[in-house]
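Changelog entry: the Linoleoyl-CoA desaturase record was regenerated in this release. Current contents:
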Amino acid sequence: MCQNHMINYKFKSKEENDFWSVLRKRVNTYFKENNLEKDANRHMVIKSIALFSLYLTPFFILIFAGITNLYILMSLWVIMGLGKAFIGTAVMHDSIHGAYSKNKSYNSIVAFSAALVGVDRLIWKIQHNVIHHTYTNIEDTDEDILPRFFFRFSEHQPKRWFHRFQHIYAPIFYCVPLLEWITTKDFVKAFEYRQMGLIKKGAEFRKEFAGIFFRKLMYYVVFLVLPVLMIDIPVGTTIVMIIVSHAVTGIMLALIFQTAHVVPNASFVKAESENLDTCWASHQILTTSNYGMKNKILTWFVGGLNFQIEHHLFPDVCHVHYPAIAKIVQQTTSEYDLPYYSFPSFRSAVAGHFGMLRDLGK
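Regenerated structure tokens:
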């Protein structure tokens, strides 16, 4: 990452017709006229309980039911993997953005779900909220599109001979990120962000590093040591099942997020200077794509991240409001001659993503 670019990029303060001011005013008017709060409602609370149950109920069955049938055990671990992914997208994600509750203490309690998923909430917040949401699809800055040698996510990135196969091996690599995150990534990023000034050196860094260590230790004890001790099958078999469970979570999260930005219609910016050509809001429109907007079941499970445009424009708004906000965003982008990218379904977005990987590798 080029830290100087990330810190010093400057967006235009206004577009010609001040698109962002008009859009923000219309969205605020929608909430005011409908007497709605921007944070979670009763449906969101019910969803949170349901998703925690989807994640933790299989775990308690694994630990206490005395099941030794490998097919049943593997099925329970896979369900846990899915539950973990959807907690990440539909509960943790909103809370770390501060969109779950206007009460900071309550929001912080819900954000503790990050520890249950195995990631550190401050590191996630810096990488996702601060860097990705500000500098979306900007080369060498947005960590979500860093090629990491094995991939070529845009035409600006170097092409290697094996990239012609990246659309084939991508699903395997997409299984890995969560495994990396629950082991080494939080520690590595803590040092990296300290050097970049995103975590203060001294007492703040020591506190954060100690917090990462103890939360990781808790996670390993509960979700690794306890299953190994309590499930009456060979230790190696249990560990393999745990790895598979994390791989399921990893690939689900990768597909949910990659299909919003690494798709053919989204723009990728290779900035020649610190001054960018668009305002921040227009940049989000140009680099982001929705999918499956009419699919209510998909919206429920992925935490409204299929409305990625609305999320990037209004990250402090709980995702349960995105479908209504989308109509306002579509109207306003049309008036200001801005695009509004969207795939009709999740499947078509996935196809677009892998098609793009294939084309970039040729």
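The longest strand covers residues 275-279.
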